[in-house]
Write a structure and sequence with these properties.
Length: 537
């Protein structure tokens, strides 16, 4: 069920800090749950399946005010289950009141309407998900019909990832987790998702993470919650008629040329595919962009092979500028980095730290980021970490703060990124320049992908210990779980830059940190070649 599949990835901006144009920029990856769309062919549906149709409804003002859902559940309940159960989030990553916005819920089988008793999880601190549960008061006979209307998320409320369904530009967008109630104890292992777009008129598109129009989604009905959606007269890249493994859809007005920025993103995506290599070919990818007129504006958040960038109105000074390119890179990199198995509070230093490390290094290595931006980016990262009030907080303390403080929530991103930079240096040194972090990760990710290893903190520590010939587990625990400070090796971000101790000032206070400076005479393309001693690759 969705609770188990949830893997928090956190935000990239600070609460109350109007970082970049997009306002708070979030990124959140949901564990993939095997919910990728199946191929385009629609084979005979299995006996146990879930058919669902989404119909966005327009209010009198021409804005979407709800999504009407009709669905039919085939098959039976799971073994040992006697009563149908449904669940919907009460809170989903700072989107509040989702279950309360589900109206006109009707469940009917051959014997007529089904009644339910309600239970609710205890609230979870930090804005993290908890659920309401419906249990049928009698036995049911499948197939049965489930229908409801999910109202759009009202304006206002705390900022967070763009899971809530919000209207913009005459359409609607969000994620399944932001409005769905789903059956949770059935044997259904395949959903057929379709759209009724009649209210939008001709030319409208209905698209999810799983594909455009009618799609098959593997997994239980709850897998539908882990997908972005967008419907309406959306902009598209590339044009509809063009075949592409990379597509973008958008609703609203952006201060940058969306198609041009998506060309940049597609090129980067293709570079990442070759760089990370272990997903071959890289899956089809979808980018969703929405511009909202009212808060909360959202941010950038990754789900399986897709992300959503949600933002507010453009400011005059932004017009003609670029999209937040490092954010696009970050969200796409999440797909290859994935995460560790286990509790997200104890493991997001890996998923977010490594994604952040690669966000800073790979576009630079691809030649997309100039040298001076590379150096200033590393200094910004360094400053955020050493002046972060949470720089020495434990993982548990950070998890309890959750979405209430973006600065605190980012500490695992920052110390994680510095850990991986330092680790690259340690691997190069231990192997006399023969090995790198990239090589180790490629092997580890291949094993994870094939199911040969379950990548837990312990498994990761073992891989590193073996690589270095030194025990890693205690270091990982001290740093990422207990919150020790890290000062990475000076060559951790390649040979073309050097990290040196420096006092950093923030808010009138001084912090012992590091600064990064250019090493003259080492070309950007040689930055990650060989080891610090200059061994050839
Ligand atoms: Zn992230």
């Amino acid at each position: 069920m969705a609770e188990a599949g949830y893997l928090e990835q956190g935000a990239r901006a600070h609460a109350g800090h109007p970082l970049r144009a997009a306002g708070a920029i979030f990124c959140l990856l949901i564990a993939m749950m095997g919910c990728q769309a199946a191929g385009p062919a629609l084979p005979a549906e299995p006996d146990a399946s879930y058919e669902i149709t989404l119909r966005p409804e327009l209010g009198e003002d021409g804005r979407v005010d709800a999504i009407a859902v009709t669905s039919r559940l085939h098959g039976g309940l799971k073994a040992e289950e006697s009563r149908l159960k449904l669940s919907a989030p009460v809170v989903y990553v700072n989107v509040m009141g989702i279950a309360d916005r589900i109206q006109d819920l009707r469940v009917t089988d051959k014997a007529g309407p089904v009644e339910f008793t309600l239970e609710q999880d205890d609230p979870v601190p930090g804005g993290f998900p908890y659920f309401r549960h419906w249990t049928a008061t009698r036995d049911v006979e499948l197939p049965l019909d489930i229908s409801y209307r999910a109202l759009v998320q009202p304006e206002g409320g705390p900022s967070g990832p763009a899971f809530g369904i919000r209207p913009s530009k005459g359409g609607v967008s969000g994620a399944g987790a932001g409005y769905m109630i789903v059956p949770v104890n059935t044997e259904s292992s395949l959903s057929v998702l379709d759209w009724d777009l009649t209210e939008f008129g001709p030319g409208a598109v209905g698209v999810t993470t799983f594909g455009e129009g009618r799609v098959l989604v593997k997994g239980p009905p709850a897998a539908l919650m882990q997908g972005w959606l967008m419907a309406g007269q959306a902009g598209q890249y590339p044009p509809k008629e063009e075949d592409s493994h990379f597509r973008a859809y958008w609703l609203g007005d952006f201060p940058f040329d969306v198609a041009a920025e998506m060309t940049y993103a597609k090129d980067l995506y293709d570079f990442f595919g070759e760089f990370f290599a272990y997903l071959d070919p890289a899956p089809d990818y979808r980018v969703f962009l929405r511009q909202l007129d009212t808060e909360p504006y959202g941010g950038a958040t990754a789900l399986a092979n897709s992300f959503m960038l949600s933002r507010g109105p453009g400011l005059p000074e932004e017009v003609g500028g670029q999209s937040p390119r490092s954010t696009l890179a970050h969200e796409m990199i999440h797909m290859w980095v994935g995460g560790l198995s286990g509790d997200h509070v104890r493991t997001n230093w890996f998923s977010e730290g490594l994604t952040t490390y690669y966000e800073y290094t790979v576009p630079f290595r691809a030649g997309r980021v100039p040298m001076e931006d590379y150096v200033s980016g590393l200094n910004a990262l360094s400053e955020r970490y050493y002046t972060n009030p949470a720089r020495a907080m434990s993982a548990i303390e950070i998890g309890q703060v959750g979405f209430n403080d973006g600065r605190v929530r980012h500490a695992p991103y920052e110390r994680g990124a510095l850990y991986f930079a330092d680790l690259d240096s340690r691997i190069r040194e231990a192997s006399g320049g023969a090995r790198t972090l990239d090589m180790l990760l490629r092997e580890v990710f291949t094993l994870r992908q094939s199911g040969e290893v379950e990548l837990t903190i312990e498994a990761w520590s073992d891989f590193v210990s073996e690589e270095l010939g030194v025990e890693e587990a205690a270091f990982i625990r001290a740093l990422h779980i207990d919150g020790a400070l890290i000062y990475p090796a000076g060559d951790g971000f390649g040979r073309c830059v050097r990290g040196v101790p420096a006092a950093l000032e923030a808010g009138g206070e001084m912090f012992e940190g590091m600064r990064w400076e250019r090493v003259e005479g080492v070309a950007p393309e040689a930055c990650f070649d060989g080891a610090a001693e200059g061994a050839s690759p």
